[in-house]
């Protein structure tokens, strides 16, 4: 699905979200975060490998002008068996991973990825989205707060630095 992105020079370009294929796997795995963000986002190769073992996972590469520029991964909590103990909320779609390559940050692509995540969450029947974010320097907390996410006070994954955030859609 295409969405428009305004570049720093003022031009508008289309961004597409699509499944990662064998042909573009290498390009998606080559994406890197900016200096200081290492360790805050799991590398894309791990996300794609782990997705094979997560029920209801969705992984999409973000493309602009034929070039991979980011990755969005989500989990559908309703895909987990009711008896299975999961740490993520069951009442909201989970934005599992979101990364924009260092060369494309600051161009609105993260916001477009959250717009796409919102569309998917609504399609799945959820009224909101949750995610976890590292509470370390250079974290994405301010970015998510600008989008409308709020900290819940929950710490997940047995890690004091993984903070849960939630964004409810307007009625």
Q: Strand sequence of the main sheet, in spatial order? A: 1-2-3-4-5-6-8-7
Pick out the low-confidence regions.
Answer: none
The quaternary state of the protein chains shown equals: single chain
Tell me the Rg in angstroms: 15 Å
Principal-axes geometry comes out as: globular
Q: Given the helix and strand composition, which structural class is it?
A: alpha+beta
What amount of the residues lies in strands? Answer: 25-35%
Number of helices: 4
Kindly state the percentage of residues in helix. Answer: 10-25%
Distance between the termini: 24 Å
Number of strands: 8
Biggest beta-sheet profile: 8 strands, mixed
The ordered string of helix (H) and strand (E) elements is: EEHHEEEHEHEE
Return the average pLDDT rounded to an integer. 86
Q: How would you explain this protein's 3D organization?
A:
The protein is α+β, with helices and mostly antiparallel strands and 171 residues long. The protein is 20% helix and 33% strand. It has helices spanning 25-29, 44-51, 109-123, 141-147, and strands at residues 2-6, 12-18, 57-64, 67-75, 93-100, 128-134, 150-155, 162-168. Strands 1-2-3-4-5-6-8-7 form an 8-stranded mixed β-sheet. It is globular, with a radius of gyration of 15 Å. The model has no long low-confidence stretch (mean pLDDT 86).
Distinctive features:
171 residues; alpha+beta; eight-stranded mixed sheet; 4 helices; 20% helix; 33% strand; globular
Write the layout of secondary structure elements.
Elements: E1 2-6, E2 12-18, H1 25-29, H2 44-51, E3 57-64, E4 67-75, E5 93-100, H3 109-123, E6 128-134, H4 141-147, E7 150-155, E8 162-168
Parallel strand pairs: 5-6
Antiparallel strand pairs: 1-2, 2-3, 3-4, 4-5, 6-8, 7-8
């Amino acid at each position: 699905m295409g969405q428009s992105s305004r570049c720093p020079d003022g031009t508008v370009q289309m961004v597409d979200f699509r499944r990662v294929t064998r042909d573009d796997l290498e390009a998606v795995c080559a994406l890197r975060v900016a200096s200081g963000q290492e360790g805050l986002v799991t590398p894309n190769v791990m996300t794609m490998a782990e997705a094979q073992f997560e029920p209801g996972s969705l992984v999409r590469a973000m493309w602009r002008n034929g070039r991979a520029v980011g990755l969005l991964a989500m989990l559908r909590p309703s895909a987990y068996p009711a008896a299975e103990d999961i740490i993520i909320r069951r009442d909201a779609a989970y934005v599992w991973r979101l990364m924009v390559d260092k060369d494309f940050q600051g161009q609105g692509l993260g916001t477009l990825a959250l717009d796409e995540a919102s569309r998917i969450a609504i399609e799945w029947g959820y009224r909101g989205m949750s995610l976890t974010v590292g509470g370390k320097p250079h974290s994405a907390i301010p970015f998510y707060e600008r989008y409308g996410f709020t900290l819940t006070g929950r710490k997940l994954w047995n890690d004091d630095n993984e903070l849960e955030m939630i964004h409810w859609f307007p009625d």
